[in-house]
Each structure stands twice: as C-alpha cells, then as structure tokens.
Amino acid sequence: MSPMNHSQVTGFVLLGLSQVWELRFLFFIVFSIVYLLTVTGNLLIVVIVTSDPRLHTTMYFLLGNLSFLDFCYSCITAPRMLADLLSGNPIISFGGCLTQLFFFHFIGGIKIFLLTVMAYDRYVAISQPLRYMLVMNRTVCGILMAASWVGGFIHSIVQIGLTVHLPFCGPNKLDNFYCDVPQLIKLACTDTFVLELLMVSNNGLVTLMCFLVLLGSYTALLIMLRSHSWEARSKALSTCASHLAVVTLIFVPCIYIYARPFQTFPMDKAVSVLYTVVTPMLNPAIYTLRNKDVILAMKKLWKKQSGLFAPREH
C-alpha cells in the first residue's frame, strides 16, 4: 500500500537548530565555513591518493574511499541545513524526507563497514607483515569495499522498508535539521513500540557491536606492538591513533542516538551536528596531520600546481 493512501501528511517542517533569527544567521556563517572546509579537505585527500603513485596502496585506497564517503555524507544534510537556516519556511516533502533518510543511512552504513575493513587491514599489516600484500591484495580489497557498499545498501533499505508504510496524520514537525528515524517514528499515528525495537536492533546494537569489535582489535594490536622495534611501534601507533580517533568520533555519537529508546534529550541536536557536519571535516585533518606520506604528497601536488601557473620567461 502506498503511504499516500493512508497518510494526510505530504511534507514535514524541519524545526532546525534554532527559531531565533540571530542565532540562525550565526549558525549559517559557522557551518558554511565548516562545510567548505569539509568539501575541500576530503576532495583534496581523494585527489592526492589518486594522483600520487606512492599512495597507491591498500591503506590509502581505503583512506581515499573514506574521504569520498565523508564528502558525500556532508552533502546529504549540510546544504539543506544551510538553506533552511536562511529560510522562514523549512518544509521537506514526504518523498524528499525518505530520500534523505535513505542516503543518510546508506552512506553512514558504508562508513561503518569501511572502518571495520580499515581495522582489519591494520591488523593484518602489523600481525602478518610478510603476508600482508598477499592477504590484502587488490582483489580482496575490492571485494571488501564492494561488501561495504552492499551492507550499507541493505541497512538503508531496511530503514526505508520499516518507515515507508507508517501512517502520518499530524503533527508534521520534525525536531531536527534533517530527516532521521528517531524523530520520524514519533510522528506516526500508530503504536511503534515493536518498530522502535527493530530500529534500535538494526541501528544501535549493530553499531555498538561493531564498535566493541573495533576496540578489541585495536587493543590486540597495541598488545602485539610491544614486541616490535621502537621505529615500527611508533609508526604503527601513529596510524592506529588516527584510526581510533576517527572511529570514536563516528561510533560514539551513533551509539548515543540509536542504541536507546527514541526519546528526546537536550544533547540530541548537538550530537547530531557533531557526527553529520563536524566529524566529516575533522577526518582529513586527523589523517593528514600525523601522516608524513600524505603531507609529502600534498606538498608535491602543491609544487606541481604552482609550477603550472607560474609565469614563464620568453
């Protein structure tokens, strides 16, 4: 049955971050800068990883994919949020809401699975350095990347399948700046207790289990590093620290939002801003500031581009 056959609501009002014009304008300025930095930083990493032959390895292939996903992820919510901050009537259609919901969980699901693959990649690199190129070859890497996309798609389809047939007969105000399951379910004109349990299981518990597995794998790596030389240990610790920082920034807010009953708490919007808008901007900085290879590749690209635009003597 089509949702329009039993739903009086054809659109939703996004209440956003604030109803005060001065605050909305301030948020617009701040998050415009954040969005610009996010797009620039993540696309820059994609270009660097693609253009520098020294970075054509499994680890940087995965890093480039993560940066591309962060770029896509920020584009799902940030442009709409920026437009609504200046708009006096931030309404999103029912179809637009479901579309945003689909891509939000599609890209988010891929990121979670990709971070798990990246942890496995570092585990193999440290525990089996002599067999690393054999175990994590291009074919295996491609299969794992494809599996991440399939996993994200299945996860997102489940969200849409559980939401699309819900009856919405009013009210139609979503207390957020984008469409997401916790706020949307609360507007349904039916008992959603069982549905909330399914959503918490699909979102929160899966995310929590992946996070615990990742923490366990990095803990095992840290224990394993005690037998390595100081130089090898220092390099591995630097990489693992970057991965752990990104994992924490992504997983902890998701667990806070989804691994609990869908009730409203004062920190909900701040946490949503953190992992949808701010975290995609921080990831490039986290990976580049502690990564000498990426910094050298960035300098090389800068010199190359500077040389192209430098005035030539006749």
Alpha-carbon distance between the two ends: 73 Å
Mean pLDDT across every amino acid position: 84
What percent of the residues sit in helical stretches (DSSP H or I)?
Answer: over 70%
The major sheet is characterized as: 3 strands, mixed
Strands side by side in the biggest sheet: 2-1-3
CATH topology: Rhopdopsin 7-helix transmembrane proteins
What structural class do helix, strand and pairing data support? mainly alpha
**Inertia-based shape:** globular
The CATH architecture would be Up-down Bundle
β-strand percent reads under 5%
Number of E-state strands = 3
In DSSP terms, counting alpha (H) and pi (I) runs of 4 or more, how many helices?
A: 10
- Domain count: the total is 1
- What order do the SSEs take from the amino end to the carboxyl end, as H and E? EHHEHHHEHHHHH
